[in-house]
Design brief:
Blueprint (H helix, E strand, L loop, with lengths): L13 E10 L2 E10 L3 E8 H14 L22 H18 L3 H4 L2 H9 L4 H29 L2
Length: about 150
């Protein structure tokens, strides 16, 4: 499913990593997303999935979009369930994603919407995601209408 997007900058995304939970040997993060239109919802995701998402974005976007952004928090093989380490990783992931999603070309990517949809934490978050897509489509339509009006004036 592809989403109709605005080609110029959209309102910013902001994320807040709320907490983490250790589940069967891995860590799952609960993330609050405040999306364009001030629409908020929650995601649940693992470090490895977030890393894969970031790698996918890098493969599908020009490298210039990643200049000046912080590096993705590094992988740790041992003691990666230590509470001090996990608290630091939580902060590092939040910092990374806030910077990453502040870049207009990244924020406007359909891959971001696909990721957000796949990681919605619950039914309420899925409903809010649908609200976000509606908001972005209306904004894109309005921008197209304005551009058409400018052409004819």
């Amino acid at each position: 499913m592809l989403f109709k997007m605005v080609e110029s900058s959209i309102d910013a995304y902001r994320v807040q990593f709320i907490k983490y939970e250790l589940i069967k040997g891995f860590t799952e993060y609960l993330i609050k997303v405040i999306a364009p239109g001030n629409i908020s919802f929650h995601l649940r995701d693992r470090y490895s999935s977030m890393r894969n998402f970031q790698s996918l974005m890098k493969k599908n976007m020009p490298i210039r979009n990643f200049r000046g952004l912080p590096s993705f928090p590094p992988k740790k093989l041992f003691n990666n369930t230590d509470q001090t380490f996990l608290n630091q990783r939580l902060k590092s992931l939040e910092n990374f994603f806030n910077n990453f999603l502040s870049h207009p070309e990244i924020a406007n990517s359909n891959l971001v919407l696909i990721y957000l949809k796949e990681k919605a934490a619950d039914k309420q978050s899925e409903d809010k995601f649908t609200e976000l897509v509606d908001y972005l489509e209306k904004k894109a339509t309005k921008k197209s209408e304005i551009a058409e009006n400018i052409k004819f004036t």
